[in-house]
Amino acid sequence: MIKKILILIISISFIPSVLMAEYPNTSIGVIDLNKILSDADAAITAAEQIEEIAIEIENEIKLSDEEIIKEQNLLIESQSIMAPEAFEAKRNEYESKVQKYNNERQSKLMKIDELIAVSRNDILNAVKPILEEISNDKGITIVLEKASIMLNAEKMDITNEVLKKLNKSLPTIKVSRD
Questions:
Q1: How far apart are CA 51 and CA 34, in angstroms?
Q2: What letter does residue 157 receive in the DSSP assignment?
Q3: Can you list the residues of the chain whose pLDDT is less than 50?
């Protein structure tokens, strides 16, 4: 009986050490992606280019708005002098034009969001190999995003190191409307 208890105790103490041998030592790194996406040189230049494109689009929309309003006013003025059938045809033509304009307007506004998403993805794709390099150099096995962490040691944060390497490897991004 004592022999069985002794075997049981030895095996219980042996099992955790065998199980732990299968897992590598865990070292955690933390990165602030929001800081990367706002402070990286490429992000700053992309934001400036996107802002210029957004202003162009806004000006185009403003001009188109003015044209649509002008055409609406002309249609209202001509209602009293036009035959009802002719006016109805003009009104249908105008409504069709407004619908087309609204679709184009929405498409232009969505283009801005698309440019932001593409720029963000370009930066994140450039960050991945940098994270791998830093992780390998420092023996980091897990990298967590800072926004999902309540508390961490300052030495775990690799954001500034990633930012420096990112600025060297991807100093700018070319953003175009096409």
A1: 19
A2: B
A3: none
The answer to pTM > 0.90 is: no
* Beta-carbon contacts of residue 134 (< 8 Å; ≥ 6 apart): 29, 140, 158, 161, 162, 165
**Per-residue pLDDT tens for 42-67?**
999 999 999 999 999 999 999 999 99
Q: How many Å apart are CA 14 and CA 10, to the nearest integer?
A: 6
SS3 content of the chain, % helix, strand, coil (to 5): 80, 5, 15
Q: How far apart are CA 163 and CA 127, in angstroms?
A: 9
d(CA 76, CA 63): 20
Shortest CA distance to 122 belongs to which of 28, 53, 178, 47?
Answer: 47
